[in-house]
Amino acid sequence: MTPVRFGLVGYGFGGRYFHAPLLSAAPECDLVGVMTSSPERQALVAREIPGTPTFASLTALVDAGAEAVAISTPADTHSSLTEQALQLGLAVVCDKPFALDPEAAKHTVAIADERGLLLSPYQNRRWDSDFRTVRKLVADGELGTVTRFESRFERFAPQRGPGQSGGGTLRDFGSHLVDQALVLLGPAVTVYAELRVRESGLDDDVFVALTHANGARSHLWGSWSQSAPGPRYRVTGSEATYVLGSGDTQENALLAGETPASLADRWGVEPPDSYGTVHTGAAGSRSYPTERGRWDLFYSTFAGAVRGTNAAPVNPHDAVATATVLEAARSSAETGSIVAVPQP
């Protein structure tokens, strides 16, 4: 198909490492330019993506021929920039957190629906090697009926987060943790949450407990200041439990300068010594191969949706559901109580 002409909005950490390399590596996409007003970041673009122009506005990107944009800017600008892009007739990918609250998320999605434009939250973690493995185990019935889903994004990198640009750990890591829980187990009906407010005024060391409509429970942890991270997953079912220590390595590959283009079929492949284990009680345990991570599929799928050949990689209404849970979690942390999650 004819490649979709993409503009990248923002060239901070996310734009530089998570979007530009994947857009550039996707044959279905053509990166026409980067929107940034920072002279320092303009220089980075010139050095790291030679020949790629920079622009000062969304209008300038449209004038340069952009059909779609990927927005990777501070969290408090996501709604306004996404809505401006939609009003200009652009298809939009918006990084997490999609919006700061459910009402803002609903407003943005309504604009996309009214204008008939493609809008997709950048929930790339659905294509993590580890989460794809969990989904396969559940789909194949290896664990039986899932009763508890334990998931962690824990790191010791206090100098990097929780940053103002991400809106704090609940919105930042929480956007992925909650999205994965809802994808795996369906709607949540109640939430209980705890968090710690750091000197910056932003939250960290987040714990969120969800009860899903099907009776399963999710226990989710997020921290930038955990010097002893727990296992990435422990998923318990009626027949077996899956435990995975270390998680997906696609982020590490991007930070090391690798891309799906440079690694080809080796992209997203996890080494056997990192595989998780399926425990079946008295029947023993066995190593379970980790699925290949496929962040490289997000932009190719989005481009196909722009051209009308497939559905969007992530439905924007899913972002409303996630924002609703996160808002209820914030209320729970403030009151110390279990909070009902509003249903659509």
The poorly predicted ranges are none
N-to-C span: 37 Å
Number of strands: 15
Average pLDDT value? Answer: 96
CATH topology of the largest domain: Dihydrodipicolinate Reductase, domain 2
Q: What is the CATH C-level name of the largest domain?
A: Alpha Beta
Second rung of CATH, namely the architecture of the largest domain: 2-Layer Sandwich
How much is the radius of gyration in Å?
A: 20 Å
| Number of domain units | 2
Order of helices and strands: EHEHEHEHEHEHEHEEEEEHHEEHHE
User: What is the overall number of helices?
Assistant: 11
> Per DSSP, what share of the residues sits in E-state strands of 2 or more residues?
15-25%
Helix content: 25-40%
Which structural class is indicated by helix and strand composition? alpha/beta
* Major β-sheet strand ordering: 14-13-12-11-7-10-9-8-15
**Molecular shape:** globular
- CATH superfamily assignment of the largest domain? Dihydrodipicolinate Reductase, domain 2
Biggest beta sheet attributes: 9 strands, mixed
